[in-house]
Amino acid sequence: MTLMRRPVRSELMKLTTTRMPWAFLVVLLVMGGINAASVAFGTDFDGSKAFVSTADDQQSLIAFAGNATMIAGLFGAIAAAREYAHLTVIPTFLADPGRRRVVVAQLVAIAVGGGVLGALGAAITTVAVAASLPTTEYGFLIPAVDVIQVVAASAFCGAVGAVLGAGIGIVVRNVGGAVTGAVLVLIVAPPMLVQLISSTASWVPASLALDLSGVGSEVAAPAAVFGLLLWALVPAAVGAFTVRHRDVA
Amino acid sequence: MPDHGLVVDHVTKRYGARTVVDDLSFSVAPGRVTGFLGPNGSGKSTTMKILLGLAAADGGTTLVGDRAYVDLDDPSAIVGAALETNAFHPGRSGRDHLRILACAAGVAPRRIDESLVVAGLADAADRRAGTYSLGMRQRLGLAAALLCDPPVLVLDEPGNGLDPQGVRELRDLLRDRAAHGGTVFVSSHLLGEAEHLVDDVVVIDHGRLVTSGPLAELRHETALVRSPDSNRLADALRRAGASVDLDDPDPDRDRDSLLVRGLPLDAVGHVAFEHGVEISELSTRSGSLEELFMSWTSQGSRDGASAPREKEDA
Asked: Residue B88 and residue A18: Cβ atoms within 8 Å?
């Protein structure tokens, strides 16, 4: 662990010394605002506010884990690819030629960043929904333990999404290409996969994220964790392999 | 102090069918500033990347001291390198860039300020690096290379974009490092500047070694010989193993002066005597580094690759 402390701290510092985290925070705030507005101004087909009438309905509304996977996926893709785009990977590998160690440190740091984004996203959404509920006839009905589950699931999915995006970023090495790759894997590919093989519907990231948030019940929580880890670790492993075997710049 | 010389031993690097570095061998001695010279695309940067473990060679080995760079226990403490002018995030301040590197290398934070001062970037340290001029970027790279106060410096074109004062400061800094036993390996295409900086040169062209050794000795390796029968003398000298060029290739000028490399002065005289060729002048030619460089690399270009010549004491 001592060997990893320096590179992980260094990678965390990379994430916090640019404006990128703030840009993502703005995205989360905007999404929270959209949720608040939908509660305040949205209605069901019959003009009622039935969509926030029960604890389950409200929990569905604040379940941010699916979004966390996608947003953190983009975060991870950008964070990893920009290392190559800006050539900052060169001084990094000069300081620590153990490339596998560097990649693991990068993935850990990006996972932490994605986890924080996921937790923040869920927290902001929860606060936004809770703050806008007084405009309806319903109060905030979700038990604290379920709120904690939603935030924890979102943090986990954020971490997983970030690692998935980072894996793509490490392989692609180009910010635009990495973002495109993350969008393809997280948004475009899953529905296509489900169309091809309908039995995979329960195993796409969005569905697994809902299960973890306590909103869906397609897959048990341990299996959902395993499934999400698999989605993240495959591109991460490919990234780690390519880093070891490719020249830098 | 342990010997931190650099060794490049029969290194070859190919990108597809293109051979970028071709069986290249040379060494860089501690206590001296060694210039790594060659035309654009001659393989200098690739060789440096191979030396520092950033690119894998298809053949051969490179050593820092007695180990490959990637096998060094604490590489940052031994080698400071600046290979790319833009190896930083433009939205990050120069100081933050160094903080990250210091953290990765396990260096005390006070070294950040010290390096910034030495590199002449202290005043701009808190500005975003994306706003830096080319010279300031070079200084940031130099500050990063000096962060751990390493005994070995490997710098790729460090003088690019520096103002005259910056060039002079860089020269003084590198000469001082070498004077204190450090190993300084610097690539450059600014030959006028390199001439004032380097003790030794390694010249490559098309990925192959053209020549290497102490610059002072290489300067005196070229003989100027003037003869009314220069064509016959040139043929005889070439047969004796020398490389021969016209001193002035301008066809409108006198063509009786030859530049001869690869044979000592007395051997040139002996060849002329053996072939009964009259000579009117025989002297060493101490051209500028630029003239030497042009003759080395143009020779390489004409021959495809000239036979490498290396001074063993380099």
From this structure: no
